[in-house]
Design goal:
Layout lengths: L10 H12 L4 H27 L5 E3 L14 E5 L10 E3 L15 E6 L2 E7 L2 E4 L6 E6 L4 E13 L2 E7 L24 E2 L3 E9 L4 H6 L3
Parallel strand pairs: 3-8
Antiparallel strand pairs: 1-2, 2-11, 4-5, 5-6, 7-8, 7-11, 8-9, 9-10
């Protein structure tokens, strides 16, 4: 079977033909052109993925061990956009007069712990035990300027939209909620607003992002 037609699907084949016809020079100039073309293709593919998956971040690299054993550092996670109403977690209705940055204390949230390990969340007398079956989301941490992949523990419906309490699955590195500032340390100090949610993972490419993490540590 003649499979020569497959080369027509290769963008580098068309680029090389165009280069030979219009420029013709090889060596260092061609190597630089190949590099720039690769960067251009990566941007185009990433942009198209974002359009198809309905998210500005269709692919993110896991930078820490906070979600082990679900995700490991260096994993590339493909993300699709998600309607906040579709995010699954124990849910509570609160009449909060806020629409973006909300501290847990402003929502009447109290974190219940054994030592520093979170065992549940209390909201206005209602107790929600920690569960590991909530939706995993990618959200934007606007305090430190980074994307975080963690699981939703509590979903809060308000007149201004949804807010979320989140946590990493790794109990050793993330024993309590992201928003629990015990010992003065928080992953993210505010409830996660629906505007910050970039999407939910749909599949993982294991470990190939580790090179980027080594070259450009988070």
């Amino acid at each position: 079977m003649n499979l020569d037609w497959l080369k027509l699907l290769d963008p580098y084949y068309h680029f090389d033909r165009w280069w030979e016809k219009n420029v013709g020079k090889g060596g260092a100039i061609k190597l630089l052109a190949d590099l720039l073309f690769t960067v251009f293709l990566a941007v185009v593919i990433y942009t198209l993925m974002g359009v198809i998956l309905h998210t500005p971040r269709p692919a993110v690299i896991v930078a820490s061990s906070s979600m082990e054993p679900v995700f490991y550092p260096g994993d590339i996670v493909i993300v699709r956009g998600i309607d906040p109403a579709e995010i699954s977690a124990p849910e509570v209705d609160l009449n909060l007069p806020y629409n973006f940055h909300v501290l847990p204390s402003q929502a009447g949230i109290r974190f219940v712990r054994e030592g520093i390990e979170l065992t549940g969340i209390e909201v206005n007398g209602m107790f929600f035990p920690v569960e590991d079956n909530g939706t995993v989301i990618v959200y934007y941490d606007d305090v430190r300027g980074r994307d975080i992949i963690h699981r939703v523990l509590l979903k809060i419906r308000t007149p201004h939209g949804y807010f979320f309490v989140t946590k990493g699955d790794n109990g050793e590195t993330n024993p309590t909620a992201d928003q629990d500032c015990i010992l003065g340390r928080c992953v993210y100090p505010f409830l996660v607003s629906e505007e910050q949610v970039l999407g939910t993972p749909i599949f993982t490419i294991p470990r190939i992002g580790i090179i980027k993490l080594l070259l450009i540590p988070s």
